[in-house]
Amino acid sequence: MGGAVSAGEDNDDLIDNLKEAQYIRTEEVEQAFRAIDRADYYLEEFKENAYKDLAWKHGNIHLSAPCIYSEVMEALELQPGLSFLNLGSGTGYLSTMVGLILGPFGINHGVELHPDVIEYAKQKLEQFVHTSESFDRFEFCEPSFVAGNCLDISLESSAYDRVYCGAGVQKEHEDYMKNLLKVGGILVMPLEEKLTKITRTGSSSWETEKILAVSFAPLVQPNKSDSAKRQPLHLPPPNVRTLQDLSRIAIRGRIKKTISQETVARGSGVLKSQPRYKRKRLRRRRMGTIVFLDKEVFASQIPNPFDDNNNYEEAEADLREEEEKVTYDMKADPPVNHLREKILSLPLPDPLKSYLLYYREK
């Protein structure tokens, strides 16, 4: 599934294409997509395909096409502080992007059938938290992943504000999925070959909207022969943050506000993310021109600079050199992490500084 937009040279180029095609329509979704490099969730030997609008699968590891994820993110209407359940959470790519919007007081849970994929998702999550340059620009709701079949979720589990299912839902399981929602909540799932948005408007009332045609692998059914041995799948309880953690969130938020105020006071306007730089390739164009007057050929061909055989080889060499030349709109300055610099400058013990930085190395 995918191929709705052109491939990008990098993550930002891919997001530009998704915006142009109206798959990404809101600033919050755009920022989340730009903050998480899709290639980071690919195995090394497959990264050359990361910026194509195509799904990718290797063993149990799977990523949907970027156009699908962007439609899902827009349809969920995410807001800070909401609870989110991702059924078939896979690599954690979507859950991590959602966590950037939910903020520190949201709930972010994922259910994944394959334990090896959960380990892969945890590795990618740790990589993002400790090495991504984007991390300090957000207050993050870290996802928690549970191994199991999403059709075995305990009836005692809390309902969620937002639910997404990343596998085709059979009609017989539609009501089961709806009941995972709170009143006012939104469920997005593939249902009968359509990506479908369902809003719970009351205890027993719903609004349904078909978004676009899709093709997903169906949900894996629990083994009925082992029904006697099956245990209900219990989702994590709501995370109660410690006073220490709440203090860290508050201090980081206060420092970010101070940095923003200082930036405005210097006349620089609001803080902006780092500018993006796109490559331009100089391509050779050769054309012969035929001129028509009164539907008659007036001149057979306007002389082409390459018609001079004496200069042809030299011109060819020059153009080949220019064709390979890459120019940039401007030279990029190294990104500056103002939050990190501010924390490191505080008169605090080093262990406390490390804690405020989530023990990140850069």
UniProtKB/TrEMBL annotation:
Belongs to the methyltransferase superfamily. L-isoaspartyl/D-aspartyl protein methyltransferase family. PANTHER family: PROTEIN-L-ISOASPARTATE O-METHYLTRANSFERASE, PROTEIN-L-ISOASPARTATE O-METHYLTRANSFERASE DOMAIN-CONTAINING PROTEIN 2. It is found in: Cytoplasm. Its main location: cytoplasm. GO terms for molecular function: protein-L-isoaspartate (D-aspartate) O-methyltransferase activity. Pfam families: PCMT. Keywords: Cytoplasm. It comes from Pyxicephalus adspersus (African bullfrog). The keyword Glycoprotein does not apply. This is Protein-L-isoaspartate O-methyltransferase domain-containing protein 2. One of its GO terms (cellular component) is cytoplasm. CDD domains: AdoMet_MTases.
